[in-house]
Design a protein that fits this description.
It is a single chain. The chain is α/β, with parallel strands linked by helices and 147 residues long. The chain has five helices and five strands, in the order E-H-H-E-H-E-H-E-E-H. It has a five-stranded parallel β-sheet with strand order 2-1-3-4-5, sandwiched between helices. Helix 4 links the parallel strand 3 and strand 4. Helix 2 runs parallel beside helix 5 and helix 3 packs parallel to helix 4. 36% of the residues are buried. The protein binds ligand CA2. Ligand CA2 binds next to loops.
């Protein structure tokens, strides 16, 4: 794989490790970034890891990934449940997008049960904490290998 996998993170994920460890675990986003980079390296891939609290920035990064990434691992945070614009951006780009979530959104409040991203993404991995990201990277590599 010549281009990196872009790992994009949405709102409030910069707060990981500070509150709600029973839902999101005790790792910080920097811990997740480090683990993703190490896991990707083991399977011959490289990563670019980004977080934003702003919907438009995430859209711009998806457009950037269309040119500069082989695949995208995307945790859209709460925008998962609200954003038609992110749905459209995921649909608009060529590289496979794997949606990931730390928590099992289907087992949480009803407003988290619907994802606007799932129907546009190649696949979704939810509820496995850090492993959602690591399996997302593996899924991304496998999707690219099949192209
Ligand atoms: O489970 C996930 O990965 C989520 O995408 C996390 C989002 C949530 O809105 C989604 O429904 C599921 C929340 C991001 C982190 O929120 C925090 C809130 C307080 C303290 C730390 C993190």
């Amino acid at each position: 794989m010549t281009k990196p996998i872009h790992i994009l993170n949405g709102p409030n994920l910069n707060l990981l490790g500070t509150r709600e460890p029973e839902i999101y675990g005790s790792m910080t986003l920097a811990d997740i970034e480090f683990a993703c980079e190490a896991h990707a390296r083991q399977i011959g891939a490289t990563t670019v890891f980004r977080q934003s609290n702003h919907e438009g920035q995430l859209i711009d990064w998806l457009h950037d990934a269309n040119v500069n990434a082989s695949a995208v691992v995307f945790n859209p945070g709460a925008f998962t449940h609200t954003s038609v614009a992110l749905h459209d951006a995921v649909r608009a780009i060529e590289p496979p997008v794997i949606e990931v979530h730390l928590s099992q959104t289907a087992a949480r409040e009803p407003f988290r049960h619907h994802s606007y991203i799932a129907s546009a993404a190649r696949g979704s991995i939810t509820g496995l904490g850090l492993d959602s990201y690591l399996l997302g990277i593996e899924a991304a590599v496998r999707c690219v290998a099949k192209q």
